Amino acid sequence: MVKKKLQVFISSTYIDLIDERQSAVQAVLDSGHIPAGMELFKAGNETQLDTIYKWIDNSDVYMLILGGRYGSVEEKSQKSYTRLEYEYAINKGIPVFSVVLDENFLKEKACLLGEDRIYEQKNIDGYSNFKDFVLSKIVRMVNDSKDIMLAVHSTLVDFLEDYDLIGWVRANDSEANTLLLTQINELSIENKQLHEKNSKLLDEINLIQSTFDSSLAFEGESTTIEGTYTENIGNNVQKQYRDRSIEQDITWDKMFLLWAPYLTATINSIRAKGQLESALRDFVGRRFRIKDNLFQKIKIQYSALGLLKYYEAPTTQGSTAEFITLTPKGTKYLIKNTAVKNN
User: Fold this and answer.
1) Which whole-number Å values give the CA distances from 35 to 61, 86, 109, 130, in the listed order?
2) CA-CA-CA-CA dihedral for 58, 61, 62, 65, to nearest 10
3) Torsion of CA 324, 325, 330, 335, to 10 degrees
4) 137: helix, strand or coil
5) What is the pTM of this model?
6) Do residues 230 and 287 make contact, with C-beta atoms less than 8 angstroms apart?
7) What pLDDT does 173 receive?
8) Please, are residues 321 and 266 in contact by the beta-carbon 8 Å criterion?
9) Above 90 in pLDDT, residue 106?
10) What is the CA radius of gyration of the chain?
11) Which of 70, 103, 67, 102 is CA-nearest to residue 85?
12) How far apart are CA 73 and CA 111, in angstroms?
């Protein structure tokens, strides 16, 4: 009996389901069949959507992996590309099977990758409607990648028995074609993953360079520096001293730029506090001391902004102490705003 190789079109959103797609691709290959999908092209306009439909037309089986995202939306229909692919396959009568990530699986992924990457943020209604549509048909709920691989193996066996599928039949040159398609698919997946890593690195660089949480006070936002200094109220014969309070408003970014040059090398928190008082001396107009609770507030604010970090570490004497240093983001902000520029 001639063994057919089925071409399986794998459809899903991408950034949130990289590992799951790879598991499905590997399962299709292990089953002796041929995977195809979005790695072979880049969706973005009507011509490319037509290309997707042609690949679905030329496939024997359509597989949907549904996570927690709706995906990119096609402008004319206002439907996601994943939904358009799914509806097209159903309308064309192509055998369809779907695996849906259960809520526990999604929560585990969100803990690792962040909720913004795993759960839909913009088209929540569109996602809910699509998921309800998918769940109205026969689906396989999965809670890890192994479940996806098992679903692929068992479903393809059933489809070969239940449907009269065309498939690929090995002849003198068909094996070479199959191998070539498999290699193209694997190279396309690798290229897509490299592109994803590059985009992620660019996002991290942009984050380091400029962005701040808009809910946190920083540029142009003022805070009050409260401190004390000791005043001599006696005379040359009998010296008497008393502590006096002092207050001065300053913006968070101004205070950071005064203090940051002292933090380019890692120092302990006690010394960092003294350096902050020294940095503010000229701004306030005299030497003064700040309270520990104010220092903690300042330290936490700049840490939340991603400009500095503090941590405990062993000292040379064998005890532990808290140390403070600038982050790469803090260093870049300092250089950008203090370096002398060319006229």
Assistant:
1) 10, 16, 24, 24
2) -140
3) 130
4) coil
5) 0.50
6) no
7) 47
8) no
9) yes
10) 31
11) 70
12) 26
In this structure, the strands spanning 96-101 and 139-142 are parallel
Joined tokens for residue 331: 């260093």
Above 50 in pLDDT, residue 1? no
* SS3 of residue 74 by DSSP: coil
**SS3 (DSSP) at 219:** coil
| Spatial strand order in the sheet of 7-11 | 34-37, 7-11, 61-66, 96-101, 139-142
Domains of the chain: residue spans and CATH: 4-209 (3.40.50.10140), 222-338 (1.10.10.10)
pLDDT in tens, 48-89: 788 888 889 989 999 999 999 999 898 888 999 999 999 999
Query: Measured in whole angstroms, how far is the alpha carbon of residue 96 from the centre of its chain?
Result: 31
Inter-CA distances, 37 with 14, 142, 298, Å: 11, 20, 51
3-class SS letters over 164-203: CCCCEECCCCHHHHHHHHHHHHHHHHHHHHHHHHHHHHHH
Q: pLDDT at position 342, please?
A: 75
Which residue in this structure is represented by tokens 């999965």? Answer: 142
Q: Do residues 317 and 333 lie in contact, with contact meaning Cβ atoms separated by under 8 Å?
A: no
- 3-state DSSP percent of the chain in helix, strand and coil, to 5: 50, 20, 30
Give the amino acid at 31. S
Count the neighbouring beta carbons within 10 Å of the beta carbon of residue 335.
Answer: 11
Nearest CA to 101 among 181, 21, 162? 21
